Write a sequence for this structure.
């Protein structure tokens, strides 16, 4: 796909098949720091999030790609606790009619997944979805990883707890972050 194929049927800008939530992969980093850029203003995300929320889940990411006339959508959902296969199945069945209306007369492939145990956190806004979950963040100020359980997150920073101590990390010092269930065991 080329950048000339820029707009899809619901108005999201699509640069290539690696685009997440309508943004290119480099939107996660600004000078090596986590960026807080929530997806709530994007049409497809806004359309699907209430349906997913109605099932007791949260929509983390919408991945859209087009290949030879087919539309592929991968939705990542989460909830407190464990996301089961049944949760993914319910979400798939709930969003499919809406997606068929958004992409009429096109081959549509929809996949609903959980974030997994070691998901790379692509945007600072995702930290709010992982409160109570273990994460590790690579910090630019100390050039090392800091891990813990997310206890609070806002549009400027995330607060982690480990061994009874908390540390507040502004997004500008986090180069990358990922879920890490082993942090939950150590807390």
């Amino acid at each position: 796909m080329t950048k000339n194929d820029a707009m899809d049927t619901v108005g999201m800008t699509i640069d290539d098949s690696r685009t997440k939530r309508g943004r290119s992969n480099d939107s996660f980093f600004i000078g090596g720091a986590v960026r807080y850029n929530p997806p709530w203003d994007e049409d497809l995300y806004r359309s699907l999030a209430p349906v997913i929320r109605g099932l007791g889940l949260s929509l983390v990411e919408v991945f859209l790609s087009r290949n030879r006339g087919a539309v592929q959508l991968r939705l990542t959902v989460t909830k407190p606790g464990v996301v089961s296969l049944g949760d993914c199945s319910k979400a798939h069945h709930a969003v499919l009619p809406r997606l068929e209306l958004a992409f009429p007369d096109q081959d549509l492939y929809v996949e609903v997944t959980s974030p997994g145990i070691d998901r790379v956190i692509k945007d600072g806004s995702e930290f709010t979805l992982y409160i109570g979950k273990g994460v590790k963040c690579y910090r630019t100020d100390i050039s090392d990883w800091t891990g813990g359980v997310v206890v609070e997150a806002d549009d400027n920073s995330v607060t982690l707890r480990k061994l009874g101590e908390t540390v507040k990390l502004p997004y500008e010092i986090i180069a990358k972050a990922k879920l890490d269930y082993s942090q939950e065991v150590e807390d």
Summary: The chain has two domains: 25-113, 124-186.
